[in-house]
Amino acid sequence: MDFLENYYNNYDEEGRLLSPHGRVEYITTQKYIHEALGGDTRKTILEIGAGTGRYSVALAREGYPVTAVELIEHNLELLRSKLDGTEPIRVLQGNALDLSRFEDGSFDLTLVLGPMYHLYTREDKLRALSEAVRVTRPGGRIMVAYCMNEPTVVQYVFGLGHLREILGANMLTEDWHCISRPEDLFELVRPEDIAELDAAVPVRRIKLIASDGATNYMRELIDAMDEETYAKWIEYHLTVCERQDLIGASHHTLDILQKL
User: Fold this and answer.
1) Number of structural domains, the chain?
2) How far apart are CA 54 and CA 215, in angstroms?
3) Alpha carbon of 220 to those of 77, 217, 251: distances in Å?
4) Which of 38, 59, 88, 118 sees the fewest Cβ atoms within 10 Å?
5) Are the C-beta atoms of 91 and 80 separated by less than 8 Å?
6) Alpha carbon 113 to chain centroid, angstroms
7) CA dist., res. 110 & res. 67, Å (int)
8) Which residues neighbour 2 within 8 Å (Cβ) at sequence distance 6 or greater?
9) Within-domain flag for 159
10) Could you tell me the CATH number of the domain that includes residue 200?
11) Which residues contact 5 (CB under 8 A, 6 or more apart)?
């Protein structure tokens, strides 16, 4: 946890989320969240790994009952600072690997939009996913975000010239799957890794989408767009984000599941 805590204590996560390129992932994820909720403000939401509250606070302000669980105290402080006390939200410190404080089937929608980025073993990933599924009511939705392997190989390993460093540290498998450790902060997966986890829990997949698609390959260009051009970029991205031939090239994906 020290690596993770140090990272979020010193990284401007708020700035990233509010930047034009960061908003693409947010706009896309919110679109699918609202599709799942269908405007019914009686539906209860659990966000596991709520971070600084980008989603939880916005949804609570819309009137949805939200329970926000976050591991890092710094993030919790930022989240709480956004609240005026009128929002229907509970804010709790907790770990995605242990949701024992919640009973089975407690929530209509469970969001896991950050924890899978920082879990490095199949056992931990499956435990977090199993807990998220357990606390969701039958028929409810679970949305799980992942960081993808290929954009890191393309941009970081080759684009930024880290190939020799990565090879020297034995951080790539023979088939070019990145090997992450806690000190590397982010765990990277491929679509088949996500499918393998899904197969181990009682869910059916609704959709697997590219949350930001090509956006992070051209951050500077996206951030410099005028309002009209940016709106067209969002329109284009939302048109193609469900295309399965593009999923593995997206920096982030969103796995939308329904509990059986």
Assistant:
1) 1
2) 19
3) 30, 9, 16
4) 38
5) yes
6) 3
7) 10
8) none
9) no
10) 3.40.50.150
11) 72, 73, 74
For the chain, the maximum distance between any two Cα atoms, rounded to a whole number of angstroms, is 53
Which DSSP string do the residues of 31-80 spell out, in sequence order? HHHHHHHTT-TTS-EEEES-TTSHHHHHHHHTT--EEEEES-HHHHHHHH
pTM reported for the whole predicted model: 0.94
- Asked if the structure places residue 215 within a domain, the reply is yes
Full domain range(s) for residue 124: 2-148+185-259
148-174 pLDDT, tens per residue? Answer: 999 999 999 999 999 999 999 999 999
Helical H segments across 85-223, by residue range? 122-134, 149-152, 163-168, 191-198, 219-223
- Tokens (6 digits) for 115: 């924890």
Which helix (DSSP H) or strand (DSSP E) does residue 126 occupy? helix 122-134
The reply to whether 189 falls in a domain is yes
DSSP secondary structure letters along 72-112: -HHHHHHHHHT--S-S-EEEEE-BTTB-TTS-TT-EEEEEE
In a domain, 178, yes or no: no
183-230 tens-digit pLDDT: 888 999 999 999 999 999 999 999 999 999 999 999 999 999 999 999
